[in-house]
Sequence to fold (228 residues):
Amino acid sequence: DAGITQSPRHKVTETGTPVTLRCHQTENHRYMYWYRQDPGHGLRLIHYSYGVKDTDKGEVSDGYSVSRSKTEDFLLTLESATSSQTSVYFCAIGMDASGGATGELFFGEGSRLTVL
Amino acid sequence: AQSVTQPDIHITVSEGASLELRCNYSYGATPYLFWYVQSPGQGLQLLLKYFSGDTLVQGIKGFEAEFKRSQSSFNLRKPSVHWSDAAEYFCAVGPNTDKLIFGTGTRLQVFP
Fold:
């Protein structure tokens, strides 16, 4: 168990409202990721982080921002939610060894977001 | 740009039959290759990975995959499928190990 939790697990919101999803880990891993999962698209990387205050964009970052002020928390924010952001969002932590990331990701259970 | 293709959206097999799930990638050099499995309502779990060396890699739950550079493929196989293998399977590729690109997934259905 990699000790990763996502909150909230389910959320329904209206177009134009801000939304923040939280990913919390208990094992001090450096690498953290936010993916979204949509039918026919698989998982697409939104943003990722290599450590505190060290984040970068993934392939579908438009409309999303992230923050990592503590090692254990990686927040994903939708500043003004749109219906196209209705999705299941997965946080993942990347296992790392002395040489860097190993490629093994541990995923949270997902956050289902519906934007009406 | 790197990409990964899983040509089969949905596969149905009988329990006890063999299984092969296809994965093709596009990348200029030897990529890092992974297979993940997702059970309904769950996050993804790593089945196996290939970085270098022996092109046939063994994973958990009796799965294996073979890297074929000439075909740009990394197909997942299992000699005898169990009903509990019903899930969605994702191939992933990376130029390195810290940022993976996932395929669109193959949903496996197993009939008794």
User: Anything to note?
Assistant: Residues 67 and 74 of chain B are 5 Å apart (CA to CA).
